[in-house]
Design a protein that fits this description.
With 457 residues, this protein is mainly α. It has a domain at 253-321 and 348-415 and 450-457. It has helices at residues 3-35, 41-47, 65-68, 71-99, 101-126, 131-181, 188-204, 206-251, 257-295, 301-311, 317-334, 336-361, 370-417, 426-429, 433-441. α6 packs across α11, α9 runs antiparallel to α12 and α9 (257-295) packs antiparallel against α13 (370-417). The longest helix has 51 residues, at 131-181. Mean pLDDT is 74; it is low at 41-46 and 429-457.
Length: 457
């Protein structure tokens, strides 16, 4: 019995020593984990992955997709989506304009009339008249003159309609006889067949003509509405145009406001020069062509002259159409010789207009390339008919002036923000050159006009 407690004591002492050693090992591990960085299990797994063999092919890393696209394609894509946004914006704008076409045309007509009458208002104010009275006198005189011109044309057509109809019938009979005796070998049966075809065409389209007559009532109502809108808009533009322009400038972003504020007066001067020059050129055309066909004995010479005056506001196309109308009237009323002489008169006056009058009267302020004139007139006619053809060319001229000024303004702003040159090369690097430096030394005041090289036609 005496050996059992000793054995148990030695066993307990061994277990106690083993527990102490385990505790020491645990403390050592805890101390190591506090000082060393934790290791990721995934990293340990990857460290155990064997390296590829030496005979395995090398695989290059895939490039960035942006770098894989060619530079030219990236430029085309950048330009393409911007052009799509611009095209969509223009399409929406054209839809809006088509929805309110009457209002837009009336306001544009008011702008054209205001550009024609504004110098008279300014002259009356310099004479001492108040602004309201000067505006009223100018507007009343302008509208009365335009109304008298329209009434005169209608009166002349109605007075000479019977005589013109008789002369047309006589001219058609003379043309029939000339065709029978001409070297073209036209027979009586062929002429009768042509006349019968014309009568059948008129009879078959009677319903269309009737519906067109009913639509004409709607056109008259819309025309009267447009005239009233144009008159009221003209009155307000003549009286309060400066305040309207200042209000419009407040809608422009502040950064673009100085450029727009400088481009606006130049655009208005261009529009004024275009309208006044076109009126003078159209008046000269109407007077000389009217005198020519009057001395040739063509009936309704005065109404034809007024039509020529009004058609001159559609550049190129209006002159051709009105001149052709005068020649046709001369042909069916006075014969072939008178028609040829009328054609000579029309061509001579139009050549003088194109090569002398327009460059001298309009000058470089509103010079637009003939191709741009044709394309703008065609586009305006397709979008808004005759009204669109009338306002197309002044719109292009004003846009040309605004774009040219803004380009020059942005160039000058960039030069002002650029660091100034120093040293001996400062004079050579100066954008104004030697003449501008001399002017600056003399204390000349700078002008607000863009540089001459930046002005466009």
């Amino acid at each position: 019995m005496s050996r059992v407690p000793g054995w148990l004591g030695r066993l307990g002492a061994g277990l106690s020593g083993m527990g102490e050693r385990l505790n020491e090992q645990r403390r050592d591990r805890d101390a190591d984990s506090d000082t060393d960085e934790p290791r990721d299990a995934s990293t340990e797994d990857y460290d155990q992955v064997p390296a590829p063999p030496a005979y395995a092919p090398a695989i290059a890393a895939r490039p960035d997709p942006v770098d894989a696209v060619p530079w030219g394609m990236r430029v085309a894509a950048e330009a393409g989506w911007r052009l799509l946004i611009l095209a969509g914006t223009l399409w929406v704008l054209m839809k809006v304009i088509s929805a309110v076409q009457l209002v837009v045309l009336a306001f544009v007509a008011a702008l054209l009339i205001t550009a024609l009458l504004q110098p008279t208002v300014a002259r009356l104010r310099r004479m001492g008249l108040p602004r309201g009275l000067a505006t009223a006198v100018t507007a009343i005189l302008g509208f009365v003159i335009m109304g008298l011109v329209g009434w005169f044309v209608v009166w002349q057509v109605m007075e000479n309609a019977d005589e013109l109809s008789r002369q047309i019938q006589d001219g058609i009979e003379d043309l029939r006889k000339w065709l029978l005796n001409s070297p073209f070998h036209v027979t009586e049966d062929q002429i009768n067949d042509i006349a019968k075809s014309l009568r059948d065409a008129v009879g078959a389209n009677t319903e269309e003509l009737t519906s067109a007559g009913l639509e004409g009532v709607t056109v008259i109502v819309e025309t009267l509405t447009g005239i009233l809108l144009a008159m009221f808009s003209t009155l307000f533009l003549l009286y309060d145009g400066k305040r309207i322009w200042q209000w419009f400038l407040k809608l422009v972003p502040a950064q673009a406001r100085p450029g727009i504020a400088g481009a606006g007066p130049r655009a208005w001067r261009t529009l004024t020069a275009y309208v006044r020059g076109t009126v003078i050129v159209a008046l000269i055309d109407a007077i000389f062509i009217g005198l020519g066909i009057y001395f040739l004995g063509v009936p309704m010479a005065v109404p034809l002259a007024v039509i020529i005056f009004l058609a001159a506001f559609v550049p190129l196309v209006g002159a051709v159409v009105s001149g052709a109308l005068a020649v046709v009237v001369a042909l069916v009323t006075q014969g072939v010789f008178t028609a040829v002489m009328a054609l000579v008169v029309v061509l001579a006056v139009q050549q003088i207009e194109g090569h002398i009058l327009q460059p001298f009267i309009l000058g470089r302020a509103v010079r637009v390339h003939p191709l741009a004139v044709i394309l703008s007139v065609a586009a305006g006619g397709m979008i808004a008919g005759v009204g669109g053809a009338v306002v197309a060319v002044p719109l292009v001229a004003v846009t040309n002036t605004v774009v040219g000024y803004l380009r020059a303004y942005s160039r000058e702003a960039a030069l002002k923000q650029a660091p100034q040159p120093r040293g001996a090369t400062a004079m050579d690097a100066s954008p104004v050159g030697a003449a501008g430096a001399d002017e600056a030394r003399e204390g000349a005041a700078p002008t607000d006009e863009p540089p001459q090289s930046a002005r466009t036609d």
